[in-house]
Every structure is written in structure tokens, then in C-alpha cells.
Specification:
six-stranded mixed sheet, 17 strands, about 525 residues, alpha/beta, about 20% strand
Length: about 525
């Protein structure tokens, strides 16, 4: 019996059909990945499975008594609670049993009875079987794997960055050990080492899980089946991610052959009918062909998503050093790192790595003048005319604005036709051009930002985790565009497979610090 049965699911969003009459199952122990181009409805599907959104049609049926754990990065948490105490709440049921056991001991000291003793034995057995007395070591094992220990286990939740907070919420979810895990882009806020740890953890996870991810190396390691969302259908493939790609490729070729064959047959019938229906001698034959034509169940024309075309325009500069950083301290209320000292040379493609929350984004925001330096200084060369910046946070000045206006307001000389073309070059679907930007998927929003950046000639590109929400085609096109860019690139990324072929220098942010 399936843990989850999805039957005849249909759902539309803002007049766009996401799925139509789609069905699939999740079985005990299955490790499922959900993939598809940006905007196909992956995150919406997760919300439907969690019953946060009601579908237009179809049924979502979970097996009774199935415990489901989902990664909610915006979960309400008590800000004054420390990381360690928050993670202990994952075992709230066991702590309650332990409190009951303590009361029973006190009661038994005053009035011994066999019924109380039986309850004591039962509670002790539960606590022993579920490793209650090893909770602290279990917590430390998970926090060590996800790099949470480095934040300080006594740190209050209110003092964490968004990425750090999401990581702690993920840790609690893993500690709860539900029957089914549902995770939407869990690697977005993890570093390479922690993604490796999570991969190993999920490989050995005895329960089932459903994961939405654009990190295909990660999916290859952890999944046993893939649900692909394409052409308003959700189709399940058994096997790894690479196996899914082979199966999908073969099915796509077969579908194209069937479509082309059907089109030839339709054309042949239409031509015959057009030539013969007016002749008395052949009118009956033409009518027979017309009946046959009407009975054909027509295949939809393959409308495969067009691949993006991204190009960044470089402003030439002959200067040798474009950025000098000297004894720079970055942070909000206190320094996140020791003082930094480094320089970036013209044409260099520098990738900065390091643990999540260590200060990479804060450094970039300081360089862009969004937050002041705590101490020290940095200086861009006077020859630098323009810096292009991609911020990882999906924040908009006016969340209700549409992509057409966002680009048009910043580049008023462009006609609407030109703006639409530029948006299409970044693989933004025409139906999303007139949709409020905040209602688009994370990947679609990132593409609007990439479009804006591609229209801005600059000497330097500064990018903060630009691949977090991007599908495989856009990610590959972005990588290619950065390789071809003649200017300087400063990139923060946790995806080694993305930057390994474009970087001229990869450095951990800690190595940029001066040790006094």
C-alpha cells in the first residue's frame, strides 16, 4: 500500500495550467526527487501535498497515521530560545514521558502499587528504545554534520541570519525522524561539506522523502525515483536522476516520432477530403475519411522550453588591480571575521567559498555600499565605471510590479517588444511577463534579476549564490556567460560543479583574513 496516492491532480495558477489529470504514488522507503523547469509548479506541488493549497481537482490521500515532516524556513520560533534548547523540542514527546516517569517515581515512594510499577516499566522501555538518554549526543551529531556547532549552541535564534536559521530548522526536522520528509531546496543554504553530510544522511534514511532541488549532483546521490513536471503532466520515473534523463530522452524522441507520423497521416487525410468531397463519385469516400480524421486523438505539439541565451557586456578597463581591501572588518553589530586584506586583479574570476553564515554575503553587501564597514577600508579603482550586482535575496522594491515594468523602468529607452525579447532570452515565459514578480517561482524571479544584470554593461560582476533557484539549462547558460565575460567576476557559490570550470582563483573567505 502506498504512503501517498495522488490521483487525477489538476491545478492552475494565475490562469496558467500547472498540472492536468496527473497521478503518482509514493511508497514506503522511496526517495523521490521532483524536477522541472522554473515555473512549472514544483513548490506549489509541495504545498498541495502538505494541504496548504487546495487543488482545483483531484485527491491527495496519505496513509493514516503517517507522520510528515516538512522544511518550513519561515516557521515561528521563540527568538530568545538557544539553538540547543530549540533542537531539544524535537523530542518533546519523550521529555513529557520522562516528566510522567518522575511523577510516578514520587508517587511510588509514597504508595507502591503494581499498576504504577507497570506504567514505570512501560515508560522506561519507551525511553530506552528511543534513546532518550542519548538525545544530547544525537543532537550534537546532526549539528556537527550541518555545521551548526560553529554558530555556538548557546546562541539565541533571534541572532541568526536567515540561512543559519533555516539550517537549524532543518536539523530539528531530521531529529524528529518522521515517516516522510518533504524538503524544498534544502541545499540552498548549505555549504559543500554539509551537502555531502546531508547526502549520506538521506541515503541511509529508512523512511520516505520527497525533495525539490536544482542541485542535480545531490539528487543523483539521494534519489531512487524522479517525478518530472513538464507539459502540465507529472510523470514518475524509477531509478536515479541520470537514469531518469536517459528514460526521458528516449520517451521524448519516441513522442516526437509519433507526433510527426500522426501529422503526416492527418495531412494526407485532409488533402484527400479537400480534393474529393465535392465530387459526387468520391464524396462518400471523403466522408468516410472525414469520420476517421475526427476520431483521431491528436497528440499535443511538442513545445519544449526554449533554452536561455545570457550575455554580459563588459566595459573595457586597462587597470591591473580593480579592488584593494585593507584590514576590512565586516558585520552588522560586531565583526563576523578577522580583518581582511586582499586584492582582485582585472579579468580575474574569483570564487569565494566558506561556511554558511560566516560572512560571505555580508562582505559583498559591504563592497556594494549596502552596509557600512566596521573598520578598515576598500577601494575600487577609479577606472571602474560600473559594477553589476546579483543579490541572492529575492527582495523587490515593489513586489506587485511585473517583469515588463521592472525592466522598462530601469531601461526606459527599450521598447516593449525589446523588453519581451530580453526576458525571453532569459527563458522567462511570456505568461510570466505580466505577472506580479512576487508571485513567480524563485527561479523565475532569479531570471528577472539576471535579465536586468545582462542589460547593464559593467567592468565587474559581483554575484551572491546566483544558482540557488535556477534550473539546469539556465545554470549552464549562466556558467557559459560568465566564462565568456571579459570583465572581472567576484562570485560567492557553494556549488563546486558550477564554478570549477570558470574560476581563475577559488579561495575560502577565512584565507582572506589577516591573522594578527
Amino acid at each position: 500500500m502506498a504512503l501517498l496516492e495522488v490521483e487525477n491532480l489538476s491545478h492552475a495558477f494565475s490562469e496558467k495550467q500547472l498540472y492536468k489529470d496527473s497521478s503518482f504514488e509514493l511508497y514506503k522507503g522511496e526517495h523521490m526527487g521532483i524536477v522541472g523547469q522554473n515555473g512549472t509548479g514544483k513548490s506549489t506541488l509541495i504545498k498541495i501535498l502538505l494541504k496548504e493549497i487546495l487543488p482545483d481537482k483531484g485527491t491527495i490521500k496519505w496513509q493514516s497515521n503517517t507522520t510528515i515532516g516538512s522544511l518550513d524556513q519561515y516557521a515561528v520560533t521563540e527568538g530568545d530560545m538557544t539553538i540547543f534548547n530549540y533542537l531539544r523540542t524535537a523530542f518533546e514527546r519523550l521529555y513529557k514521558i520522562n516528566d510522567e516517569l518522575t511523577k510516578l517515581y514520587e508517587e511510588m515512594a509514597e504508595n507502591y502499587s503494581e499498576s504504577i510499577m507497570n506504567k514505570v516499566d512501560k515508560y522506561q522501555e519507551i525511553l530506552s528504545e528511543e534513546n532518550f538518554y542519548g538525545i544530547d549526543s544525537t543532537i550534537l551529531k546532526v549539528t556537527s554534520g550541518l555545521g551548526i556547532n560553529a554558530m555556538g549552541m548557546d546562541t539565541c535564534l533571534k541572532n541568526l541570519s536567515g540561512g543559519q536559521r533555516a539550517k537549524v530548522i532543518l536539523a530539528k526536522l531530521l531529529l524528529q525522524n518522521p515517516d516522510v520528509l518533504i524538503l524544498d531546496e534544502p541545499t540552498n543554504f548549505l555549504d559543500k561539506e554539509h551537502i555531502e553530510w546531508l547526502s549520506e544522511y538521506l541515503q541511509s534514511f529508512k523512511g520516505a522523502f520527497i525533495i525539490v532541488s536544482h542541485d542535480y549532483d545531490f539528487l543523483e546521490k539521494v534519489t531512487t525515483c524522479i517525478c518530472d513536471i513538464e507539459f502540465n503532466k507529472i510523470k514518475k520515473y524509477r531509478g536515479s536522476y541520470s537514469s531518469f534523463l536517459k528514460q526521458k530522452g528516449a520517451l521524448r524522441e519516441e513522442y516526437i516520432r509519433q507526433y510527426e507520423s500522426q501529422q503526416k497521416e492527418i495531412k494526407k487525410l485532409e488533402d484527400y477530403i479537400a480534393k474529393n468531397k465535392v465530387r459526387a463519385s468520391t464524396a462518400q469516400m471523403a466522408k468516410s475519411r472525414e469520420k476517421k480524421l475526427n476520431k483521431i486523438e491528436r497528440l499535443e505539439k511538442p513545445s519544449f522550453t526554449s533554452k536561455p541565451h545570457i550575455h554580459f557586456t563588459a566595459i573595457e578597463s586597462s587597470v591591473q588591480v580593480v579592488l584593494e581591501v585593507n584590514k576590512l572588518e565586516v558585520g552588522y553589530y560586531y565583526p563576523l571575521l578577522p580583518k581582511m586584506k586582499f586584492e582582485v586583479r582585472n579579468g580575474e574570476k574569483l570564487v569565494i567559498t566558506g561556511f554558511n553564515g560566516i560572512g560571505k554575503s555580508t562582505l559583498l553587501k559591504t563592497l556594494m555600499g549596502q552596509i557600512p564597514a566596521i573598520s578598515g577600508e576598500f577601494r575600487f579603482s577609479d577606472a571602474i565605471k560600473k559594477i553589476g550586482y546579483f543579490e541572492q535575496d529575492l527582495v523587490w522594491e515593489n513586489p506587485n510590479d511585473i517583469p515588463l515594468n521592472i525592466i522598462g523602468n530601469e531601461f526606459p529607452k527599450l521598447t516593449q517588444k525589446q523588453i519581451r525579447k530580453h526576458l525571453a532570452d532569459c527563458a522567462i515565459k511570456k505568461e510570466h511577463v505580466m505577472q506580479p514578480v512576487s508571485t513567480l517561482s524563485g527561479g523565475e524571479q532569479a531570471k528577472v534579476k539576471l535579465c536586468r544584470l545582462a542589460l547593464t554593461p559593467c567592468n565587474i560582476l559581483i554575484l551572491d549564490e546566483p544558482t540557488n533557484h535556477l534550473d539546469v539549462d539556465t545554470k549552464e547558460e549562466l556558467r557559459k556567460a560568465l566564462v565568456e565575460f571579459d570583465g572581472t567576476v567576484i562570485l560567492v557559490s557553494h556549488e563546486a560543479s558550477f564554478y570549477k570550470d570558470l574560476a581563475t582563483r577559488v579561495v575560502s573567505i577565512e584565507k582572506l583574513c589577516v591573522r594578527n
